[in-house]
């Protein structure tokens, strides 16, 4: 069982929405998931339409009045059980607990259910008290949603300090990942924040973002995750990608060496890495590590993950009379009809495009000259922008076209 703590001491950053939809997407992938609502506001419980002010919650478990198994609400969604929260949970901050046991309570009470679940997703309260400390101490991964604003980035350093303290106190690795949320890539300011986040948090930034959309609020109003409310929406696809990334990261972490750095490996210059994320791959391989050698054996940092994701791809995979082979990969479209149309083929779906599909990944291959192109996907007959590409421009129909930049010069990178 792996524990994922979704935490940020700032409210309004999409923390609860992320916990709800991550749990739902993991459940849809045939994982057994326990969603643990640690926020006394009970919004995670409310988001699944099972909120009850008179419900027993973790406060009753911590005081020994009831067991964790007895308060679990089963099958609130496919593969997902919920531990509810009510305002009674606020009293847990004042529990008389020995100092050396204060941040171990949650791990203690989770132990009896470890064999029942593959993942525990914890929605942490927006404060750094006993409840949040317990979640962080029990976590195998801390996921920090961060909105695109100065306020969103403020205070994250304090969370890093607390996690470092817990690492030292308990002698265990607690990896951290940052998830950009409420992204509106149409605005220049938002794109600036994305790049700043990539530079500031480097490898801790996920190659996934969650866009701002009213669909999330509509889904919450209906008491369901967005993949149930509108499974074809861009944001549903993005949360599906987050679930894939989470599973992959925790599997990688389980096999890391004693250094315990999640997903960090020293490069092997003899092996090229194929991109493993659904951003449009025009050329640049996404590297597994941000560490490279400068030829003298001395290590130096590479570009951060998010910066790589949002920079235009540069690798030239092949040349035929000035044309370059461009491969765009799209994930989470299993069983769906996906076509590619753009300024490079007169907006005629799949004209001049080679399609390959393997293990649910759709590859679209085109030969293009260096330059800037606009494109859209046609999924089951419906036109939409590429959900994995933040670079977009308005079109005449009131929607948005995704932007593809094919550059002339590059250096082939290996990892």
TrEMBL record:
Which part of the chain is the AAA domain?
1-172
* Annotated AMP-activated protein kinase glycogen-binding domain residues: 332-409
Q: Which Pfam families match?
A: AAA_31 (PF13614), AMPK1_CBM (PF16561)
InterPro entries according to UniProt:
AAA_dom, AMPK1_CBM, DNA_Partitioning_ATPase, Ig-like_fold, Ig_E-set, P-loop_NTPase
* Family statement: To B.subtilis soj.
The protein depicted here goes by the name Sporulation initiation inhibitor Soj
Task: Say which species the protein is native to.
Answer: Sulfuricaulis limicola
Query: Mind giving the lineage of the organism this protein is from?
Result: Bacteria, Pseudomonadati, Pseudomonadota, Gammaproteobacteria, Acidiferrobacterales
């Amino acid at each position: 069982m792996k524990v994922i703590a979704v935490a940020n001491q700032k409210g309004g950053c999409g923390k609860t929405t992320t916990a709800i939809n991550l749990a739902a997407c993991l459940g849809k992938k045939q994982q057994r998931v326990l969603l643990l609502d640690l926020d006394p506001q009970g919004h995670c419980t409310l988001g699944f339409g099972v909120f009850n002010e008179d419900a027993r919650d973790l406060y009753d478990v911590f005081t020994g009045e009831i067991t964790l198994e007895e308060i679990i609400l089963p099958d609130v969604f496919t593969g997902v059980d919920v531990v509810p929260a009510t305002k009674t949970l606020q009293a847990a901050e004042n529990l008389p607990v020995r100092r050396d046991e204060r941040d171990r309570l949650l791990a203690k009470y989770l132990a009896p259910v470890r064999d029942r679940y593959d993942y525990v997703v914890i929605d942490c309260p927006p404060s750094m008290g006993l409840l949040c400390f317990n979640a962080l101490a029990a976590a195998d991964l801390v996921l920090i949603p961060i909105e695109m604003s100065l306020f969103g980035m403020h205070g994250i350093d304090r969370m890093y300090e607390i996690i470092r303290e817990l690492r030292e106190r308990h002698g265990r690795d607690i990896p951290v990942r940052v998830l950009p949320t409420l992204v509106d890539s149409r605005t220049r300011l938002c794109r600036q924040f994305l790049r700043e986040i990539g530079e500031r948090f480097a490898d801790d930034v996920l190659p996934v973002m969650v866009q701002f959309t009213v669909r999330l609020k509509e889904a919450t109003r209906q008491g369901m995750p967005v993949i149930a409310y509108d499974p074809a929406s861009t944001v549903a696809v993005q949360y599906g990608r987050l679930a894939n990334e989470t599973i992959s990261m925790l599997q990688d972490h389980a096999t890391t060496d004693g250094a315990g750095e999640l997903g960090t490996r020293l490069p092997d210059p003899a092996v090229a890495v194929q991109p493993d994320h659904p951003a449009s791959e025009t050329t640049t391989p996404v590297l597994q590590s941000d560490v490279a050698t400068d030829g003298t054996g001395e290590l130096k940092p590479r570009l951060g993950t998010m910066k790589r994701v949002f920079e235009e791809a540069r690798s030239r995979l092949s040349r035929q009379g000035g044309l370059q082979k461009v491969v765009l990969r799209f994930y989470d479209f299993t069983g769906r009809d996906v076509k590619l149309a753009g300024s490079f083929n007169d907006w005629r779906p799949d004209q001049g495009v080679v399609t390959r599909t393997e293990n649910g990944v759709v590859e679209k291959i085109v030969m293009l000259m260096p330059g800037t192109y606009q494109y859209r996907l046609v999924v089951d007959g419906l036109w939409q922008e590429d959900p994995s590409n933040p670079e977009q421009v308005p079109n005449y129909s009131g929607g948005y076209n995704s932007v593809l930049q094919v550059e002339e010069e590059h250096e082939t990178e290996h990892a």
